[in-house]
Amino acid sequence: MSVRDNIRESLYAFIKLEGSKVAFADKVGVTKSAVTNWTNGNNAPDIETIAKISNMYDVPLSDILEGRVTSDDVKEPCTRWVRVPMYGSIAAGKPIEMAVVDGEMSIPIEMHRKYPRSFLLRVEGESMNKRLPNGSLALINPTKDVIDGHAYAVAVNGYDATIKRVKKYENGLELSPDSTDPTIKPKVYDFGDASTETVTVIGEVVWCVYPFDYEV
Q1: Are 13 and 19 in contact (CB under 8 A)?
Q2: Are 88 and 99 in contact (CB under 8 A)?
Q3: Could you tell me the CA-to-CA distances from 183 to 56, 66, 105, 126, 178 in Å, in that order?
Q4: Local confidence pLDDT in tens for the 216 residues of the chain
Q5: Can you spell out the DSSP letters for 39-66?
Q6: What is the dihedral of CA 129, 131, 133, 134, to 10 degrees?
Q7: What's the rounded Cα separation, in Å, for the pair 32 and 38?
Q8: Using CA atoms, how far apart are residues 23 and 64, in angstroms rounded to an integer?
Q9: CATH class assigned to 81-209
Q10: Does the keyword Transcription apply (predicted)?
Q11: Most buried residue, 32, 34, 90, 105, by CB count within 10 Å?
Q12: What CATH code would you report for 3-65?
């Protein structure tokens, strides 16, 4: 079966627990027509909604995507999730202007307890595709500290944003891709050069959600 079919099969278990599509829709915060479209196979919930359902019912996201959820697996909705701000996009490639907050999404409460100031950014591009496929949601923990080789969201020129692996030098930074594309190269910013663009570390990537159609 396709991923969409797997999701549809999993949804029936949640609907059975709630007693109706209307009750399930109210619990998730969507319309009944949206749920009907999902169960009819017309479309599928987006990854943010799937992650929310996963957290609400304490069911692994992978089980939902693989159609392995049964009514025996589903318990009453729990509160093991917390909503955090979500920014529209952040480039994992050529830096683009960072978008304004365009919504919220639920993350596991364990992650929120560990990173209480964290927020989500959507990844676009292929320069980090070994770890962050295009369309992923990256959880960013605000920090100025850099551990060489870790992935960070950085601002270039104060307003552009990108995700790269960062290496710190005495007077500069190197931003490196983690990509299957050999044409995407590292870039070194020498702060001793007056013409060098300003680079500011926004925060470290500490967790992510892959797109629901991503193939491992």
Answers
A1: no
A2: yes
A3: 42, 34, 34, 11, 11
A4: 788 899 999 999 999 888 899 988 988 889 999 999 999 989 999 988 998 888 788 888 888 999 888 877 776 655 567 888 888 666 555 444 445 567 788 888 888 888 988 999 888 899 999 999 998 999 999 998 999 999 999 988 776 678 999 999 999 999 999 999 999 999 999 998 988 888 889 899 999 988 766 666
A5: HHTS----HHHHHHHHHHHT--HHHHHT
A6: -70
A7: 10
A8: 19
A9: mainly beta
A10: yes
A11: 90
A12: 1.10.260.40
Token representation of residue 118: 């964290």
Tokens read off for 61: 């996201």
Identity of the residue numbered 44: A
Dihedrals phi, psi of 137, to nearest 5 degrees:
-110, 120
Could you tell me where the beta strands, DSSP code E, fall in the chain?
Answer: 81-91, 96-97, 101-108, 119-124, 137-142, 151-156, 160-169, 172-176, 187-190, 199-209
Sequence-ordered list of residues with C-beta below 8 angstroms from that of 80, at least 6 positions apart, any chain: 55, 58, 108, 109, 110
The ranges assigned to domains in the chain are: 3-65, 81-209
Q: Which residue has the tokens 């950085």?
A: 154
CB 40 within 8 A of CB 49: no
CA–CA separation, 120 vs 208, rounded Å?
8
